[in-house]
Specification:
By secondary structure, this protein is mainly alpha-helical. It is 77% helix and 0% strand. Helix 1 packs across helix 2 and helix 4 runs parallel beside helix 7.
Length: 191
C-alpha cells in the first residue's frame, strides 16, 4: 500500500509495523523477523500486515527505505561540510555506513531482503535505489538524472556499495573494510 495514499491512522499503523520489524531485526536479524510476531507487536491482524507488506522481504526492504529516507532528512538538516564534491560523497557514505553498523541485525536482514530476488519487492527496491542515488547526487551538487556520465557513475557507486554490504553480511568483507572500499570506489568513479 503506497504511503502517499494513506490516511493518518493508516500511516500510524504502517509505522507501527515497520517499527516492530526494525525492533525484531535488531534483536536477532533475519530469523527474528517473523510476520506473526510483527503482527503481534504492531497490534494488527495478520491480514492487515499482509495488505501493507505482501511478504517478509517487502516489509524489510520497506524498513530499509525508511532508514534511507531518515538519512536524507538528517543530511538536509546537517549536510556534509567538505567543499570538494567527492569528499562530500565520502562523508555521506561514511555517515550512512556508521548508521548501518550500529544496527547490524537490522542491516543484515534488510540487505538480505533487498537481494532476495523476490520480484514482488521490485517497486520498493527501486525506491531504495532511487533514494540512495538522490543522496549521492545531492552530495555531489548534481541534479538527479543529470549528465549521462555522472548518472552512470552514481549508479555504479550505488552498486559497489550494495556489493560491499552483501560481502559483509556473507562474512567475506570485514566491517572495518567497508569504508575503505567505498572511499576507493568513490575516488575512482567520481574524480
Amino acid at each position: 500500500m503506497p504511503a502517499a495514499t494513506l490516511t493518518t491512522s493508516q500511516e500510524a499503523r504502517r509505522e507501527r509495523m515497520l517499527a516492530a520489524a526494525f525492533d525484531l531485526g535488531r534483536e536477532g536479524g533475519w530469523e527474528s523477523v517473523q510476520m506473526r510476531e510483527v503482527s503481534t507487536r504492531a497490534d494488527v491482524a495478520m491480514g492487515t500486515l499482509y495488505r501493507y507488506f505482501p511478504s517478509k522481504e517487502y516489509l524489510l526492504v520497506s524498513v530499509m527505505l525508511r532508514q534511507v529516507n531518515a538519512l536524507a532528512d538528517r543530511l538536509a538538516i546537517s549536510p556534509p561540510i567538505a567543499e570538494d564534491p567527492v569528499a562530500r560523497v565520502i562523508e555521506v557514505l561514511g555517515r550512512a555506513n556508521s548508521n548501518l553498523m550500529r544496527e547490524p541485525g537490522v542491516t543484515s536482514a534488510t540487505i538480505r531482503a533487498l537481494v532476495s530476488g523476490n520480484s514482488d519487492v521490485a517497486p520498493v527496491v527501486t525506491e531504495v535505489r532511487d533514494a540512495m542515488r538522490r543522496i549521492i547526487a545531492d552530495a555531489l551538487g548534481e541534479e538527479p538524472g543529470g549528465s549521462t556520465k555522472r548518472s552512470l557513475e552514481i549508479d555504479l557507486l550505488s552498486d559497489v556499495w550494495l556489493a560491499v554490504l552483501v560481502g559483509w553480511i556473507s562474512g567475506v568483507v570485514d566491517p572495518a573494510g567497508i569504508i575503505p572500499r567505498l572511499d576507493d570506489a568513490t575516488i575512482t568513479l567520481l574524480r
